[in-house]
Amino acid sequence: MKRTHLMLMALIFWAITPVAPGVQADFRDTFGALDGELTISGGTAHIPVMKALATQVMKASPQVRISIAGGGSGLGIKQVGEGIVAIGNSGRSPKKEEIDRYGLVLHRWAVDGVAIAVHPDNPVRALSFSQLRAVYAGTLSNWKELGGPDRTINLYTRDASSGTRSVFWKKALSKGEIHAKANFVKSNGAMKSALAGDPYGIGYLSVGHLDASVAGLAIEGVSPTLENVKSGTYIIARGLYSNTKGEATGLARAFLDALYSPEGQKIIAAKGFIPVKG
């Protein structure tokens, strides 16, 4: 394991946060005979589930340590492919050339919607796709044109390695322009913080990250709810993947098995995603 490279990652989370209330699991039978460190990086939408599951695993087996880092889908795919981490998360299916180059095996475990969001004080609660494309192209630049205050719209986006951005760009913008004036943020969490602090901002983030600090917008009359994502009515959605280089073994295999277990599926649902198997 290239630990020097791993330590250069922007942020490492030691999974010590509590699981959602009412979701508890006992993984002693699965992990009791295992030890060592499991390294995970990539998509930031995945982090709440990864941390919650890792907490339960390490509670069951104190000899196991699990480190979880973000960095975006592209980084997760690259780092697992290069053997830097054991699991590389992505909010998009890896491309065929990535699968072929690295020998990746894909593990799809949830469906997630990508919500367009604003500050809760913003009175605008709905947009059409054409309005959204105009906003991000910069041709519609004042909230007044959308029924909001007479203030400039502050755009927020993610970098090119983000799976969230990829889905937003393809399914919400129809591969349209993202204006050069847009502010870049590094993660779903950073996007939520930016919008929660900017009454005139607009951005996008995982539906699983929506809370009272930001307001999700209806698009073409369809709100970004779990029910609408699950039914397919809300079309700005994607799969969440945990990728391995070849078939998963050891701690990585045990962790993925726990993710697909009934307890793991409950954690996925509790964090605002739609659990799937395979």
From TrEMBL:
<protein>
    <submittedName>
        <fullName>Phosphate ABC transporter substrate-binding protein</fullName>
    </submittedName>
</protein>
<dbReference type="InterPro" id="IPR024370">
    <property type="entry name" value="PBP_domain"/>
</dbReference>
<dbReference type="Pfam" id="PF12849">
    <property type="entry name" value="PBP_like_2"/>
</dbReference>
<feature type="domain" description="PBP">
    <location>
        <begin position="35"/>
        <end position="263"/>
    </location>
</feature>
<dbReference type="InterPro" id="IPR050811">
    <property type="entry name" value="Phosphate_ABC_transporter"/>
</dbReference>
<feature type="signal peptide">
    <location>
        <begin position="1"/>
        <end position="25"/>
    </location>
</feature>
<keyword id="KW-0732">Signal</keyword>
